[in-house]
Specification:
Blueprint lengths: L1 E3 L2 E6 L2 E5 L5 E3 L7 E4 L3 E3 L1 H10 L2 E5 L6 E5 L7 H11 L1 H16 L9 H23 L18 H23 L16 H10 L4 H9 L6 H16 L1 H14 L31
Parallel strand pairs: 1-5, 2-6, 5-7
Antiparallel strand pairs: 2-3, 3-4, 7-8
């Protein structure tokens, strides 16, 4: 996995390169990189997109530090074994419950109650999350009447809810980036279901109170004039400082491994990796 920011990606003399503003070329071994994350200021030629697709390299267009995911090319990659693995886990009721219990344990730092269904665990989580919001609001001296926002009338919400919505939107962006880079599907969730970003919500909920929610309340306490912009920039800085994206991919694998099913092996006719990545700069997820 590699990031590209403020440069032009092109194919020159048969090589996949990044050209900076001074015309300096940097060669990218696209055949050994599973995912290229394109941040603001990046342009890419048609030839570069074609070469990346043929090499099975996923292209992701994101905001700064992944606070938004705008588009993805060839999601799922050149191999389907991770998508099949995720689908098998979601369709197996026993495996799905194990995954949900693992998410609960990671989120709250303790094992969930025994003999509880997914619906029951969802209700327990909801009650605990509401209490956590209240505690954080009290800690930072923020007036809190509960989580309430309207996508159709954003400005009608209070400052705290606007800060929280901006923070969670940023977290959803980087989580969806990680899910796609790892070779999984954002729509196949476990605790959440039936939405295009169900798995994004699952993964984001694990990290929400560890990363963006306390920060959102701290910013809300200052009474910002432009809460969305301040929160987005703060999220960008935190994501970069903590290398959150690099932590998310192994965390996703860890969560799914709790289901206890083996990942299917890719069939022999799948697209092979272009060359052996001894330095481990490529991402194992996107191409298997």
């Amino acid at each position: 996995m590699a990031y590209v920011e403020r440069g032009r990606l092109d194919v020159i003399d048969g090589a996949f390169v990044v050209v900076d503003k001074n015309g300096v070329r940097t060669h990218l071994p696209v055949g050994g990189v599973g995912c290229l994350i394109l941040e603001p200021g990046t342009r890419i030629s048609h030839a570069a997109v074609v070469l990346a697709a043929r090499a099975g390299c996923l292209l992701l267009w994101v905001g700064e530090a992944g606070v938004r995911l705008y588009a993805a090319g060839q999601p799922g990659g050149a191999r389907s074994n991770r998508l099949l693995y995720q689908a098998r886990l979601a369709l197996d009721e026993t495996a799905r419950l194990k995954v949900v219990r693992k998410m609960y344990a990671l989120r709250f730092g303790e094992e969930p109650p025994e003999r509880r269904s997914i619906d029951q665990l969802r209700g327990i989580e909801g009650a605990r999350v509401r209490a956590m919001y209240q505690n954080l609001a009290r800690l930072h001296g923020v007036a809190w009447k509960g989580r309430n926002y309207d996508h159709q009338n954003w400005d009608a919400s209070d400052i705290a809810n606007r800060c929280l919505s901006a923070a969670t939107a940023a977290l959803y962006g980087i989580c969806e980036t990680a899910i796609l880079a790892a070779g999984y599907a954002p729509a196949i969730g476990f605790l959440h279901s039936g939405k295009p970003q169900a798995f994004v919500y699952d993964i984001a909920d694990i990290w929400k109170f560890e990363t963006v929610v306390p920060m959102a309340f701290r910013i809300a306490a200052t009474g910002p004039a432009q809460p969305e912009g301040e929160v987005r920039r703060a999220c960008r800085d935190v994501f970069r400082k903590t290398n959150l994206l690099e932590k998310l991919i192994p965390a996703i694998d860890n969560v799914l491994a709790a289901g206890g099913l083996d990942m299917p092996k890719p069939p022999p006719e799948v697209q092979p990796i272009a060359f052996e990545d001894k330095g481990k700069i490529g991402d194992a997820g996107h191409r298997g």
